[in-house]
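User: I'm putting together a teaching handout on how multi-component assemblies are represented. Below are the sequence lines for each component of a complex, exactly as they appear in our records. Could you produce the 3D structure of the whole assembly as structure tokens, so the students can see both representations side by side? Please keep the chain order the same as the input.
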Amino acid sequence: MSDHSFSIRINEKEFTVQPGQTILQVAQSHDLYIPSICYHPNLGTIQTCDTCFVQSGGELVRACATKAAPGMTVDTLSKPVKDAQYEAMSRILENHELYCTVCDNNNGNCTVHNTAEYLEIEHQKYEFREKPYPPDNSHPFYRYEPDQCILCGRCVEACQDLQVNETLTIDWDRERPRVIWDNDVPIDESSCVSCGHCVNVCPCNALMEKSMLGEAGFLTKLPPPILEPMVDLIKEVEPGYKEIFAISEVEAAMRKARIERTKTVCTYCGVGCSFEVWTKDRQILKIEPTHEAPVNGISTCVKGKWGWDFVNSDQRLTKPLIRKNGAFEEATWDEALDLIASKLTEIKEEHGPESIGVIASSKCSNEENFLAQKFARAVIGTNNIDNCSRYCQSPATAGLLRTVGLGGDSGTMQDIETSDLVFVIGANPAESHPVLATRVKRAHKLFGQKLIVADIREHELAQRADFLMHPKPSTDLIWISAVTKYIIDQDWHDKEFLAKRVSNVDGYIKTLDKFTLEYAEEMTGLSKEDLIKAATMIHEANSVCILWAMGITQHSGATDASTAISNLLLITGNYGRPGTGAYPLRGHNNVQGACDFGTMPSWFPGYEPVGNSEIREKYEKAWGVEIPKDPGMDNHHMVEAIHKGTLKSLYLFGEEMGLVDANSNHVQSCFEKLDFFVVQDIFFSKTAQFADVVLPAAPSLEKDGTFVNTERRIQRFYKVFDPLGDSKPDWQIFQEVANRMGAGWNYSHPSEIMDEAASLAVIFEGVSYDRLEGFNSQVWPVHKDGTDSPLLYQEKFAFPDGKARLFAVDWTPPYEAGEEYDIHLNNGRLLEHFHEGNMTYRSEGLTHKVPGIWLEVSHELAEERNLTDGTLVKLTSPYGEVKVRTLVTDRVKGKEVYLPMNSFADDEAVNYLTSSYHDLVTHTPAYKEINVKMEILEATGEPPLPKHNHRFGNRMPQISVRVEDKWQRPDFQAIEDLFGNGGDTYGESNQAN
Amino acid sequence: MAKAIRQINKQVPNPIEEQAQAVGEILTALADNKKGILSALAIIKNLEEIGILDALHAILENRTDVGVIAMQQINQPGMHNTIKNAIYLFNFMGTLKPDQLQSMLGGVTQGLNRMGESIKNQEQHGLWKLGKSMRDPEIKTAMTSMVEFLHGMGESFTQHPSQELH
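Assistant: Of course. Below is the structure of the complete assembly, with chains in the same order as your input.
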């Protein structure tokens, strides 16, 4: 880039310019301040506020919209510039009442306040005029106050073009324009997905988190009969705004004494959003994202922005519980820990260490997972440790380990954003990975990125796709292989890439013979034309990313289907370049990290095999113990071993295995057979009901640590609160149990655990808390000097010979429940809730939006069976039954139905229906291979989804805020016309905006 | 065999023990801050004696009502003027240069001294002498300063005609 850089002169000084930068971007990159209220680095140019006028070549131009050109001279301080900026700010203040000291947004970062102060606004040039609209307080989480809205359109830009939910617009045709939701409905009844983007970018207090109102300021809680005259008084006596700003700044500074701002990483999905949490004592005031956040910038989703009430829930476990005489008794930590240590020691001595298993948590930190596997391997002496990646992405990891050598996404969000073609197979990112989906939607809407979706359910990305493929369930390997074969047959494969960088090319190609278009058409239901179209689109794209999730991995042939995806990418040369690669989207905040840090039966941290004696010796030496050489049991093995009676005891933390593992009845009956069962959680889960000892753990806001997101990015989170009640961080609990069993550990802070992991696992050797300070992050592998690896395989693949391996795979037919089970049951996530919902249902607002789950049925099925919104049906599989109300939708077709997993009710949770059949390689349950039969229990009833849910909304797509419509208004006079000719009209105009 | 159970027997906190623990914590805090607490108690005693505590209590009990009345009283044109004038005066003080003010105030002091003596001695100059004193360099200096002062004031009035009307 620097080869092409040039320079321009601003205020008689030289400034270096990167090609494509605007004048404003050049100034900002050199810390030169130019007012800019509507510009935001994550949103780009909007051109509504006009405060960024500067002079270039004698003309007044908007700095945000004018590209820097070689030789350009710019003046940001001349009188016409000052006059233009002053006029722009004055127009803004006609729409915004300055009562900063009693405003909850007066926290030092209010863009309107800071800009008015910089421009030395002394008096209201145009009198503030109220707008004829009441505030909209209908939404549970945020409000819109039209009287304070300056119509900058940041919120609209964020909603239309960054989140791409397309709910907000500004109606420029009204006498007094305002922001509207859908076709002007109350916010709560609109298509708003509550992502929070609009609130995050609002430069003033027009859009505010309700949790801030009356809470952030010292005076903002005053009742209206006192507050309103106080505002009037201040306006009446103000000598000028300078004094008012001085007072409000003092007040803002005072707020810093009581509002803590702490960086954290989201604890929901695997995207890895980071942001600040603003708190007052134990009260969460708001989530404040920043453009410094490496993954999300200012983006959030409904759960990350608002879903934190669970931390202070009165349902939290706060004391250890011990099962005594058919009930749980509260106990002290000493009692509980002594009991655990003595019982585990006793079982180990009597039945051997292999009779004990540990189930780790993908919600917990890397350090906690590291300690959990150390506890299993070094203290108990077993490799029987696994985590819930076994329920989701283990097949993808295995498929990638077979073909390219590392079990993670091959690039970052930046690659997904910049790819020519994004191919999404069996994944619903708009609901399961919302912020990642925004990047795809944005690139697709604005930058011509092509999007193919292959799914049996028409979710949001499917609706937006250029091409939607709807194969028969569980046939993905076939059509992916057929597309691969067609590409080779057309001679479209990347021969140079294959020759130089891939092994087993000819051997693999031969195995594709059976995957003809005809065979694929017959087996998958996709037409030949569709298959050719997909192949052609891949061929025509310079770069392809394939994203997949549970639609691929929760099948009997899941590892093989994942392998087929990787094979397709290799054949087409789509690895190792920007904008290419394989992206198995990780479900939990730290499912990647739990695997990376060794809570797997056959891997030490950093995917170093347990079976390798050199590696084992490295750990044995470091820990001063002997470690069993054979891989241990995975989750599935453990359940079967408990049923067989060989596994006697289980220590499980942060995992609702009783509901989340498939075939819940089978899993729960195994818990009943355990001799001793420890469950460590923040809530009294279904799984905890089977425990002998329940330990109260602390969630991420109550401890320090790191998580790894789906990109392999390691990020730090900081302690916000002390642990609630007597609860403790998981790492402290492990240390106390281990020490009672003679371990002699002495960790005083998670950073020491990370140091130990970095000293042992090669891919983390350059990782340290210092390098991860604040919003810094590292994408593994991290070299000793701290350089990380955002894009993998640029020079070589992660095998000794540096070459990728094409790996032949064949199709595995899915499990069939039998003919009487005539309906295919698909299952997965909803946007508003997370997993079984033990965190999200604690939020009143989230529960207002989605009070519970429903069964999505197609119009065809509804007609055939007389189903309507609210019909109560019983679904029965060979493994159990659930009762749920139906919702008729075109998201599903024919006899395919969709049951969200977000319920912990015994008669609703989907896994009472699923089987124990599993992926042949990794034992991931085949959750997606289940058929059910349906019986109507009540023909009509309350519809399960309230009308105030975004799914009933009415989107209003447009590009940006349509500022041209503002400029066309008869009462608009261009500022450059007023001051452009030397500013000689200043002082005489009184132009209303 | 561990069946799923939901019954949790919480330890009912013993109110007497909890109270004793709380009292203990309070006593410790009191003992640690003996001097400050005793001084505060003495102040409270005095406030109680002159009835201020009662008044404060009543105000706090009815804070919204009192607040509304107070705002009504403050939000009056007379009070607006008082507050504005106070702010202007404050700003005015800020604009004065201390050395100028010092020399001017020195002059005023000296003038007052001579004026005092003159009144004490019941001096009365004749018109001739008054006219002659205009040639006195001290009087000339003072007169020049006063005229310049008037110039400056006039300049401000003509440059910012709206300011005095604000």
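A couple of points students might notice: The first helix of chain B runs from residue 15 to 32. The two ends of chain B are 86 Å apart (CA to CA).
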